[in-house]
């Protein structure tokens, strides 16, 4: 019998890892051997409707067990809560998770605990969208602006963005929402691909995949750089020859450089007409990014996948340190905090091009960008979502790309739910794949 007042009855966690390091998928100058992984959770209820909330934090292998433990540390804040209450107001749970006075000491609002908060909050949004029968982008785009503003924590932001300003931004974008939603459904959202550019790939593979990307409709690709300048020059030359002069090539250093090195290295690659340089230095170095931006113009500066919270994003925008904001669906405190970041970007007029280089990140961030287009920024101009062609087959509602554009999801939820057989196979170390692959007692 369904409960008359349905509650969350379980928060189950899984340490899921994929052996992507063996093919060098995802390799870059800072992370040469990533195993794309998900610290994964499922919220179960006694509602009797069969609906669950799925969420995860993305990691790259070792340490995924630590991330899972952090999610489990939040269980007491979640289990027993009213399903209706948390789905009607996910911000209430977000505030409770961020506000735990003892766990907050481990941040505050940064690192492993904050990513755990994001995973749980995203699972609640997945459940809320499923209960509403809507894909998350549509749930957000059709929501009342005042309700959306109430989901945002403006603490530490009000010197740059007030609730009244946020409400005005959303209210201003209400006109034309229907037409933009129809356009999105008809055409999809523009994407770019990093799949050709992993650092461990040969020049031949890079060039072949770059040509295939352009043939598939992509008008921008991205290359990983930063390990060796001579190699970067050679690879950029091969990529530019493969795609021609009219396709954008973005570069990503993955935090490899000091400020002066970022400037000199980017200038050395300027002959290949890079569109942006991504993560040129530490994600915490706001003033360093600002210095790099001034020095390497007209090459744009982009960052965000490792920016730990809305406050650092605020400072990057206030300091005019970035040209492109790259939010991440699983790095900060979930949908609620990403709403704050999208509103900040809209206030400062900086385009958002989300990071999606990891298992499940394409599935998640598409919803955030599509909401932004329909109900906030109202434009595709200089906006693209990263795409990588890895591991989508493990999701029940995988990302669909057509002619270099993300097709709008139609299935209810946040597109976060993994296939049961994939969970069973890749749970570490006891899942079917790992049990057969690892010697007894071995660890990746």
TrEMBL record:
Any single GO BP term: amino acid catabolic process
Required cofactor names: Mg(2+)
Substrates-to-products reaction catalysed: L-fuconate = 2-dehydro-3-deoxy-L-fuconate + H2O
MF terms in GO: L-fuconate dehydratase activity; magnesium ion binding
Keywords noted in UniProt: Lyase, Magnesium, Metal-binding
Enzyme Commission number: 4.2.1.68
Pfam families in alphabetical order: MR_MLE_C (PF13378), MR_MLE_N (PF02746)
Residues covered by the Mandelate racemase/muconate lactonizing enzyme C-terminal domain: 203-299
Keyword Nucleotide-binding: no
Organism superkingdom: Bacteria
Entry-linked SUPFAM superfamilies: Enolase C-terminal domain-like, Enolase N-terminal domain-like
Identification of the protein by name: L-fuconate dehydratase
Lineage: Bacteria, Bacillati, Actinomycetota, Actinomycetes, Kitasatosporales
């Amino acid at each position: 019998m369904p409960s008359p007042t349905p509650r969350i009855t379980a928060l189950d966690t899984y340490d899921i890892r994929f052996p992507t390091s063996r093919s060098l998928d995802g390799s870059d100058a800072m992370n040469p051997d990533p195993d794309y992984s998900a610290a994964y959770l499922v919220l179960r209820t006694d509602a009797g409707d069969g609906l669950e909330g799925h969420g995860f934090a993305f990691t790259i292998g070792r340490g995924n067990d630590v991330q899972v433990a952090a999610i489990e540390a939040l269980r007491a804040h979640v289990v027993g809560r009213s399903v209706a209450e948390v789905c009607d107001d996910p911000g209430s749970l977000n505030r409770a998770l961020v506000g735990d006075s003892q766990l907050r000491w481990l941040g505050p609002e940064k690192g492993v605990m904050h990513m755990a908060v994001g995973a749980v909050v995203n699972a609640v949004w997945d459940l809320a969208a499923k209960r509403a029968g809507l894909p998350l982008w549509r749930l957000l785009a059709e929501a009342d602006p005042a309700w959306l503003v109430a989901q945002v924590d403006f603490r530490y932001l009000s010197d740059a963005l007030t609730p009244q300003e946020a409400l005005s931004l959303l209210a201003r974008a209400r006109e034309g929402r229907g037409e933009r939603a129809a356009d999105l459904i008809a055409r999809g959202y523009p994407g770019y691909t990093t799949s050709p550019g992993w650092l461990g790939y040969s020049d031949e593979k890079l060039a072949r995949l770059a040509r295939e990307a352009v043939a598939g409709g992509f008008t921008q690709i991205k290359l990983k750089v930063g390990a060796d300048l001579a190699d970067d020059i050679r690879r950029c030359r091969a990529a530019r020859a493969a795609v021609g002069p009219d396709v954008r090539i973005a570069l990503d250093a993955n935090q490899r450089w000091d400020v002066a090195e970022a400037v000199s290295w980017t200038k050395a690659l300027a002959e290949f007409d890079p569109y942006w340089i991504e993560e040129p230095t530490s994600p915490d170095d706001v003033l360093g990014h600002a210095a790099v931006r001034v020095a390497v113009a007209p090459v744009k500066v982009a960052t965000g996948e490792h920016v730990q919270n809305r406050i650092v994003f605020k400072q990057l925008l206030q300091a005019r340190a970035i040209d492109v904001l790259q939010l991440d669906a699983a790095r900060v405190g979930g949908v609620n905090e990403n709403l704050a970041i999208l509103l900040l970007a809209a206030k400062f007029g900086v385009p958002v091009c989300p990071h999606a280089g990891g298992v499940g990140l394409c599935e998640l961030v598409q919803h955030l960008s599509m909401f932004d287009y329909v109900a906030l920024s109202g434009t595709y101009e200089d906006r693209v979502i990263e795409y990588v062609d890895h591991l989508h087959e493990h999701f029940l509602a995988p990302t669909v790309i057509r002619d270099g554009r993300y097709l709008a999801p139609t299935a209810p939820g946040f597109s976060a739910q993994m296939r049961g057989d994939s969970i069973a196979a890749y749970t570490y170390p006891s899942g079917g794949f790992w049990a057969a692959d690892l010697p007894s007692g071995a660890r990746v």
